[in-house]
Design brief:
4-stranded antiparallel β-sheet; 2 domains; about 160 residues; alpha+beta; single chain
């Protein structure tokens, strides 16, 4: 009689051990799925499935999640002592520059930057020396060759 009770007791304990192992596996799987989804969301919000609000609002609401409305860009001339001969335009408007060593631009998302070198006789290289952390494009240390022309640096993209 004692052995039959022992067998039932062992069987009962094995059953709970199996349930414990299955629960551990299920919890580990759910944890990994949650961790993966959270990582994707942290890396790029564009990878999220669109909900009704995003379908209605479009990219404007996606950009507002991680968005600073202004950035700064510093432009220097590689082989020109006085950069005041070069004019910078943001969206077609002339930027006043009081510094003779560099041009500091305060930009917003989707601004177009143009550099006017039509008054220059020689060929110069314009370099994006520095940008604020939220400026994605144009990138630091990009070079543009200007010789009596207007060069479009490009459209500004902010994080």
């Amino acid at each position: 009689m004692n052995s039959r009770m022992e067998k039932k007791k062992v069987k009962y304990l094995e059953w709970w051990d199996n349930i414990g192992i299955k629960l551990k596996k299920a919890l580990l799987l759910l944890f990994l799925i949650t961790f993966t989804i959270q990582s994707i969301m942290a890396l790029n919000i564009n990878l999220l499935p669109l909900n009704t609000t995003l379908r209605l609002e479009g990219e404007a609401i996606i950009e507002s999640y991680h968005y600073e409305d202004r950035g700064t860009i510093r432009i220097i001339a590689e082989n020109l002592k006085d950069i005041s001969q070069v004019k910078a335009y943001i969206n077609g408007e002339l930027v006043n520059n009081s510094n003779s060593n560099s041009i500091d631009l305060v930009v917003r998302n989707n601004d177009v930057i143009e550099i006017d070198g039509t008054q220059l006789a020689e060929n110069i290289n314009i370099i994006i020396e520095d940008t604020s952390e939220n400026v994605v494009s144009p990138k630091k240390s990009m070079r543009y060759n200007i010789k009596s022309n207007i060069v479009i640096i490009g459209r500004v993209k902010l994080k």
